[in-house]
Amino acid sequence: MPRPTARVLALLDLLQSGGVRTAAELADRLGVDERTVRRYAEHLLDLDVPVESVRGRYGGYRLARGYRLPPLMLGDDEALAVLLGLVAGRRTGLTTAAGAAGETAAAKIRRVLPERLGRRLAAVLESLAFTGPADGGAGPDGAVLLTIADAVRGRRPVSIRYGAADGRRSERVLHPHGLVAHAGRWYVTGEDPAVGQERTFRLDRIADARTLPGSFTPPPDRDPVERVLTGLATAPHRHEVVLRIGGSAEQVRARLPASVAVIGEAGAGWVRAELRVQSLDWLPGVLAALDLPFAVERPDELRDLVAALADRLARSARRT
User: For the purposes of burial, counting CB atoms within 10 Å of the CB of 254, is it exposed (0-12), middle (13-18) or buried (19 or more)?
Assistant: First the structure.
């Protein structure tokens, strides 16, 4: 059976979640009677923890507004990592079984954050969209992420130092529209005013970000998630693939997601799929798994690979 000290700390843990907790609820959670709950509340008062007694039909106990525990000793990057981990786990289905625990843990951390950092973390969460579970990848610098999130929410331009995949480095101005976390990587979409085009940048390749004076008005109906996925599907690779598939876009998306292929209507119950891929070897098996009629418009090399797979399958089917 837990010792009284452990129960007193358990009471404090329950009250940190926020709101008013009735004596009956606390007694049930702690496994004691209501009189003992009152005694535990008095113990917390003796320890200078400001527990308030709320009278009335919906009364009970709560912590005084603005009360903070001793410093949690988390730096900005550490607090950011903890809260983003809790939010990402909930939004991608990784913490479904312990969703309530994640919510209360996030609430406790937010209670002890300085107001300045709390506002900046709120900016990250408000401007962030998730496309699905992560599969690992480089994370962004915390200062860069916070700066760009502030700029997204405040509609302010930022100056970034960017390192491209080929090693080239540049400094440019960006009007950021939104942040997207996809497949373990983070992206920011926005307009490059120097060229008047919408661009997408990986945050882990941004070495520095600084907010600039002024503001901008983002174009209407901009969807950062769609922009990132379309950009990934149309990125320059070795092979350009064009297919016609007999079925609906939803059926094709089951095997060729938005980050892989751009899907459009081709008429008469067919859709057109365009892909940019570095290797063709994996495509014949994916097309076979679609279980839909299809035609390869280009390249010819893919037709040969599909025919070779069909021959191998036929030989295997005849083998006893």
Answer: exposed
Report residue 140 CA to chain centroid gap: 13
Separation of alpha carbons 202 and 63, rounded Å: 42
The helix (H) or strand (E) run that includes residue 262 is strand 261-267
Q: Which two tokens stand for residue 261?
A: 């292929």
Q: Cα(279)–Cα(262) distance, rounded to whole angstroms? A: 17
pLDDT tens across 246-275, in order? 999 999 988 888 888 899 998 889 999 999
Report residue 194: phi and psi, to 5°: -65, -30
R_g (Cα) of the chain, nearest Å = 27
Beta-carbon contacts of residue 38 (< 8 Å; ≥ 6 apart): 23
Which residue from 184, 107, 202 is spatially nearest to 148, judged by alpha carbons?
202
Question: Could you give phi then psi for residue 298, rounded to 5 degrees?
Answer: -165, 150
Q: Quick one: which of 190, 297, 290, 176 has its CA closest to 243?
A: 297
For 265-314, the pLDDT digits (tens) are 988 899 999 998 888 888 999 999 999 999 999 999 999 999 999 999 99
- What H or E segment, with its residue span, contains residue 283? helix 283-290
Rounded (10°) angle between helices 115-127 and 142-154: 70
